[in-house]
Amino acid sequence: MPKNKLFRNYISILLSCCLLITSCMSGKKQFYIQNPKFSSEKVVEVENRPPTYRIQVDDVLLINIKDMKGEPLGEFTFSPSENRVIMLNANNAEANLYINGYTVDIAGFINVPTLGRIEVRGLTVEEIEDKLKKLLEDYIKNPIVSVKLGGYKISVLGEVRNPGRYYLFNNRISIFDALAMSGDLKEYADRKNIKLIRETEKGTATILVDLTKGDLLESPYYYLKPNDILIVSPSKTQLRRANFPVITTAFAAISSLIVILRFFDVRP
């Protein structure tokens, strides 16, 4: 084979490899919830109500107890006024929750002043309210009890624009709400393999969630639970791009060797 042709072949192979490495991600892979049933002419309804959350160990409850006139009863709570709860913010949320709230201990109990230890694990906040009202009837008439889940936090890590821990003040949040709070996914995030880590009674459970599937709206993992962790990995395209400088350096060395061999008229 002539030297010039051989040299051109080497260069062609080099350029082809570079183009392959820097290939762009398909636009279809970046679309959320792809379903051929979706239409602009017909509404597609999906039944997927948020699951009822039941209190677990280490949850933090915010409890306010008032008399029938609406006056706070400090002898039954650690925080004499709801004003302390309003002070929660992103900078000191965890500390304020610990100070103002009732942490569920390892046995599933909280310790309420005057009332003593009360088992709450496995109950909903509404069931805890009813339980406290019955206990308080021995002390006051027609008590007003408010119980909220205070330690509702999730973490979003990896290929998002604003990774971090987020404190929530409602009991319902979807996986898309969490990603929106973190600034959405980066361009080359892997939308087909979002890792969801969830606490269970036995430890932790991990599931991979595909954001492009249309049936995600029906998934039990569409709505998040307290202490859930989302980890977004980079796509294969991004990994290839990350390795590109190393590979191009190697190709540059090879091409330089080819040029030198050709200059000295030495066949590789």
UniProtKB/TrEMBL annotation:
- Domain called Polysaccharide export protein N-terminal: residue spans: 49-149
Any one Gene Ontology molecular-function term assigned to this protein's record: porin activity
Q: Which residues cross the membrane?
A: 244-264
Membrane protein topology class: Multi-pass membrane protein
- What is the protein name stated in its UniProt record? Protein involved in gliding motility EpsA
Annotated signal sequence range: 1-26
**Localization:** Cell outer membrane
Family to which the UniProt record says this protein belongs: Belongs to the BexD/CtrA/VexA family.
An annotated GO cellular component? pore complex
Ranges for domain SLBB: 153-232
Domain of life (superkingdom): Bacteria
One GO process term, biological-process aspect: monoatomic ion transport
The record's section on PROSITE patterns has:
PROKAR_LIPOPROTEIN
**Sorted UniProt keywords:** Cell outer membrane, Ion transport, Lipoprotein, Membrane, Palmitate, Polysaccharide transport, Porin, Signal, Sugar transport, Transmembrane, Transmembrane beta strand, Transmembrane helix, Transport
Question: Which coarse location class applies to the principal site listed for this UniProt protein?
Answer: membrane
